Every structure is written in C-alpha cells, then in structure tokens.
Amino acid sequence: MPKYRMLTDEELMHMEKEFIDFLVLNGIVAEDWVKIKKNNIQDAAKILESFSDAVMEGALRKTEYLEKVDTHRIASIHFQQNQMVMAAMEAPIGSIADFTDPEFIKQATINPPGYLKAFTTSEKYSSTRELELFQFTERGWLVSDGKLYKALCLAKANHSSNT
Fold first, then answer.
1. Please, which pLDDT band fits residue 138 given cuts at 50, 70 and 90?
2. pTM, whole model, 2 decimals?
3. 71 and 91 assigned to the same domain
4. Shortest CA distance to 3 belongs to which of 141, 154, 140, 133?
C-alpha cells in the first residue's frame, strides 16, 4: 500500500527517465525489470509503489502553499516547517460575494467589505507535514504560489484595522 497514492499510467509515462534512474539506484537493470514485471507482479507493484511514494514525497516537500476557492469562502494555507497557517475570507450565505470571480477577490483583498470575515488560524501537524499536505490535496485543495495567502493576510490586517 503506497504512503500517498500510486502515480497514474500517464504520470508514469512522463517520468520514464526518472523511473529508470530509480530502478538503477535500486540495483535493477532493464533486463531485470522486464523479468520482474513478467514473473513477479507483486514485486513489480511494490517497486512502482516505492517510486510513486518517492515522487510524491519530493513534490510535497517543495510545496509551500495550497488554496481553495468557492463562492462564499476563499482560503490559502502556508505549510511551514512545524505548523500550517491558514488565511481565509468568508461571506455569509446569501450575500453578493463571489470568490470565484477574480475581480471580486481583487477588490475584497484590497478593501474588504464589512460583511466579509477575514481571519487567520494556525495548527501544529498531527502527522507529517507532507502527509497532511497530501490529505488536503485529496480534498480538492490546489497547489499555489503563495500570492493569495499573502493577499489574504494583508486583507485581514486591513480589515482588522478598519473595524
């Protein structure tokens, strides 16, 4: 059972060179890999699981920010070394807020209307940083560049100073 998830066939196709390097690092030459795939499906599956975990672990280590947007809520999480910090903005259901509209986001982060609630919260990891990051991506959070997180933090600061 992989720690994260198995790479898809398409992902594996795009990572052929990396997979060959992985096999070589593990002492498996091309002829051996062909034999393993043909004669020992369980061992081949374990090798693919190990490769998938190595790829996912590497990608997750490089990831710092995730974000999630829906009509009435926008949030971004900064995955720091020992904790995650979320910056978010919420609007009451039934309000005119639409965080799926980039122009609304821009205006709301520059000058948040009074009906929006801007906040930050932090939490220590209950498991490893990478596993928690992975679990968020499995729930629909997307990798981001951190710009939204910084804008939401500024919006919260501006909102707090105006109230």
1. very high
2. 0.85
3. yes
4. 133
